[in-house]
Amino acid sequence: MTTSSRPSRLTVEAPGASTLVQDLGRPGLAHLGVPASGALDRGALTLANRLVGNPDAAAALEIAMGGFRSRFAAETWFAVTGAWGDVRLDGRRIAPYTAARAAEGGVLELAPPERGIRSLLAVRGGIDVPAVLGSRSRDTLSGLGPDPVRAGDVLPIGAAPAASVPLLDHEAAFPPPSGTVTLSLLPGPRADWFTDAARRGLFDGAWRMSDQADRIGARLVGDVLARRVDGELASEATVPGSVQVAGDGRPTILLADRPVTGGYPVIAVVAAASLDRLAQVRPGQELRFRHA
Question: What's the whole-model pTM score?
Fold first, then answer.
């Protein structure tokens, strides 16, 4: 399928709780104090882009907890992936994880999701806002990148790519789980700062996502992880998925917009293959860990 290469735009009428422009981020700048940022659910971003024929790294909208409404200025192909919930085009329900075509003036609405928390909306041509340090991603900690999307914002859409919209009736969809989410962990650089009981408890215990969770980090509710080594730790590098443990023994998982260094010991690191799953865990949802 092909579409016009004429650039278009998307008017956001309601951004919901949080809508941000995100692509695959700006890796390789940690030595300058700049985290990679980028979409938390990278697999969902890549899939949405592929469904509309975009390059994997094209900028899209990361929409947290739905409540989103927008209007297309011209005929536009789009796809919604990530969180699973009610998606409507001009009042008609359409399936997530599919490419759909909006007519000129078409209205897209995303209700609060039934599963997961973050939806990725890709439009053919990508969201064509200015790049900062090679990326169109919003970094919520440093403020780099485009401002959070507000009601009334008009977002430019780039020219259609050379690739056609794939001839697929639908894409295999794997909605985020509604029950317990299992994540794989690798040993952290300071695992030896914790007692044997704490290291066992990390894997044997039941954890829940707290309501203190954003793109910087996600605080967990569960057992206290006791240290065997007291004292201060000099600030050292962090990576996405680092499980830092504060002085109260409560763990926080650092995410894409984290600081690039931290002063709390890291007991474990969420494996890269589990980070997309982590991005969709809702407050109150149960988590368990396994050895990677």
Answer: 0.94
